[in-house]
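---------- Forwarded message ----------

FYI, see the SDR family oxidoreductase record below. Original note from H. follows.
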Amino acid sequence: MNLENIAAVVTGAASGLGEATARALAAKGVKVAIFDLQAEKGERVAAEIGGIFCEVNVTSDESVDAGFAKARAAHGQEAVLVCCAGTGNAVKTASRSREDESIKHFPAAAFDWLIQINLIGTFRCVAKSAAGMLTLEPGKDGARGAIVMTASVAAEDGQIGQAAYSASKGGIVGMTLPIARDLMGEGIRINTILPGIFSTPLMNGMPDHVKDALGASVPFPKRMGDPAEYAKLALHMVENDYMNGEDVRLDGAIRMAPR
């Protein structure tokens, strides 16, 4: 896919992996719309890359619809969607208190909250964007668009307390190929990245000794990933017309231990 002068939407693009991807797309001449709830950060990034910010909650049909309407009014129908919006939590399925031996379990509402954001929120944006891409005129090989989703290495080797997070990211991996097959007759490709330990705002807020230990746990290179490295792979998935239906780990060969 030739990226020059096309439109793209990047969710979760006010910071971290999404921000790096939005900047990389803009550097290629793409008109980028940023979907995020962090208005101040999102507006700043949009201004710096010549894009547009849309305050979007991916758990809401109305909010996502309004975001796409605003983005398309400014830039036209997007041919690229990169989904980076997401969050996490860490709660054991069931556990015993060390203080008083009381027993508690992971509340179903907290599990559902994470699934709503990470998995259903991703699918909501994918389905609505793909429907819009169907209106585009086909290009080479009948191509109309490209989509990249973000899972996690936790989809394959989740740690203690990550049942909900791993389920949400595993769901993204699991729906990659079926979506590729759903859209194959319309010239829309979809791929998924499974990032390992990356230097994102969440990680950067940790103490230095914790960050150093996390980086040292990566086989090679022994450091956390740079969001620009995620963006580079995302752009490759978009630009390489033969890449479709793939789930790719980007993790320095790490395999997460139980804790």
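H. also flagged this: The CA atoms of residues 141 and 241 lie 9 Å apart.
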